[in-house]
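Notebook p. 47: complex prediction with magnesium ion.
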Amino acid sequence: MQAVIKVTPSQLDEIAATYPANRKLPNGAVFASKITGVTITGYKSGKVLFQGPLAEKEAGRWGTNSTPHSPKKVASDLPANFAHLAVLGSDEVGTGAYFGPLTTAAVFVPADQVDELIKLGVKDSKKLTDPKILELAKAIEQRCPYHVLDLAPHDYNRLINQYNQAQLKALCHNFVLLKVLDKIAPTKPDSILIDQFVQAKTYFNYLKGQDRILKDQVYFKEKGESYHVAVAAASIIARAYSLATMNRLSDEAGMTLPIGAGSTVDQVAIKLVKAGKDLDHFAKLHFANTKKVKRALK
Ligand code: MG
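Predicted complex, structure tokens below:
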């Protein structure tokens, strides 16, 4: 059971003064308390969260705007109140596209930024237009620590000789997540959520032999953005960087490089080669498209 109320700064002070300060402060919190049947956490943003069997009753003391929050999916294997915790999330784009980079991003969303980002319209980047993605990426970058690994096709092609694609993705996620952890230290996220692309066991198998492997509090969910806005934020940042790189590559190619891996992509690749360009600079060469292009050019 949980309830959330939104209060003014003076009400927040009043509520904080009412309860014993007997719990460790989560990120973004100004007070945290546990009394019989309910834990109470007040955030800088004016949000007060009540959790426990008596949550509704206790929240009711402070006003009528108590609303149980359920816009987000919940899962029994995630910590309670997951959608409102301080979460470091990661996602990648470009794995299904012949042209362009593999771009992986991690974003740390402090608890007091969760509602902010949702209000701004941060959601799955696939549901957003390109201009909106660029606008939201800026807003996220101003509010949240993040890191991006934008792997250009040439570098991707070198690495894909060594690793399979899922393994390369695992390495990229581990890398950007650690970068953000280092940036925010000594602050620690409550949890880490990776937009799932393989089973957890496989993910960690792929990372064997790495110097540093992020393992503590790591969770995996398909459609991770429906469990925490941090994954949506990561997908938006990744998409924004990927778009910028695609624009640069299109300029260098002298033609617009299409997304995906269909027959339009083959036609453009054929044109590129005929124009004397090196596909290694523009495309992920292990895709079946490369063979089709070579066959067509024979
Ligand atoms: Mg994903």
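Notes: The CA atoms of residues 200 and 220 lie 7 Å apart. The chain has ten helices and nine strands.
Next step: compare against the earlier run before touching the bench.
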